[in-house]
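If you are new to this repository, start here. Below is one unmodified record pulled from the training split, so you can see the exact layout before writing a loader.
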Amino acid sequence: MRHASFAAVCLLATILMPMSRAAAQQEPGSDLTNLFFDCQAPGCRDEDFFRREIPFVNWVRDREVADVHLLIRSEQTGGGGQQYRLSFIGVEAFEGTDHELVLSTPGDATTDEQRSVIAERVKLGLVPYVQYTPVADRLRVVLEDAAEERPEGPGESATSMDDPWDFWVFRINANGFMNGQASSSSSNMFGNASAERTTDAWKISLSGEYSRNLQRFQVSDGSTVRETRQDWGTNALGVRSLGDRWAVGARADIGSSTFLNQDLRWTIKPGIEFNFFPYDESSRRSLTLQYLIGPSYFDYAEETIFLKTEETLAQQSLTARLSLVQPWGRWSTSLTGDQYLHDASKYNVTLSGNFNIRLFRGFSVRMSGNYSWIRDQLFVSAAGATDEQILLQQRQLETGYRYFTSFGIEYRFGSIFNNVVNPRFGSEGGGMFFF
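And here is the target side for that same chain:
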């Protein structure tokens, strides 16, 4: 066997199903494996695509009737791409037959490239289950020829030896919109830039952003009200790994905000973090404690209610964060406390979270929100805010709390099968823009 042929054997096998498009949208059959597809990660939200590409299973709408629960979650890689973890969880007769596959896509991968790579890996992961069904006789395994030159594609990662950028990734983004009518108009400009480098040992991130929002309204007396909100900021983060549960690092930022009455601000906060679970399990479960402490400087645009035009203060913060992605759903919660060291009464505490839980067959609940107890608004202007600034939300007002919440329920019943794709006439209604 020639060297090229031997190298080809070492490549990942992909599963090809010689079925026609008509067969791909077959009627549900009891001899097929029931698959419950559970993914909200980038690249796999188009279930129609996966149902077409993977026709040798029954796609079902509820985990309770599945033979296999496919749980897909992802994390962003240092290069701006995605690392996907595909957990195949056996149910009923396949209980205990679980395994996990990992793949990566580069930061410039298109949605089609992402979903194509995921689909091929899903096919591979389903082999241990479909091999017991009649379709096993029609499975074929094809090896790519390693002798063929081909560019690096999604799922293939570069090493530091062939990476001229040494793992650095840069992004530049600019956006803008305008809308209006005879008596009102608004415009917004927003831009940001970032540089990131991520390795097993280090995580370094630099970013900056600028936004400008202008609103104009003509009121009943014929006069015109104009208000502008302008903000800019730069942020830096450096983190050093200390084993599989500890990390040390520092956050720093400098910026300005008309909304917060700040001509200039800067903050430097070194700190430490502990994860009760190994970091390599973070896409499935994570429970961290993070502590930061350091100085902050503020130069106020207007004198504050505490008669300050500038000040330098020390701050500390403690954050506990829980994140779970399990077959029963998703749950994330965080609790953060910030405090000024010169006065213990100047603090804020924020509780936030979201979850999507399947309580029983076909029925799920979801909720997200946050609540803040605010006792540290040192920046509030002594001059107050005008009626226009209040109505247009151009200035932060004094308050003791802030909250946001959303919730919903969903109940599905009827046929458990989800195999057929029929895109005719598309979705109902036309496109809409919301401002």
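Two things worth knowing about this chain: The domain at 160-411 is CATH 2.40.160 (Porin). Residues 191 and 335 are 30 Å apart (CA to CA).
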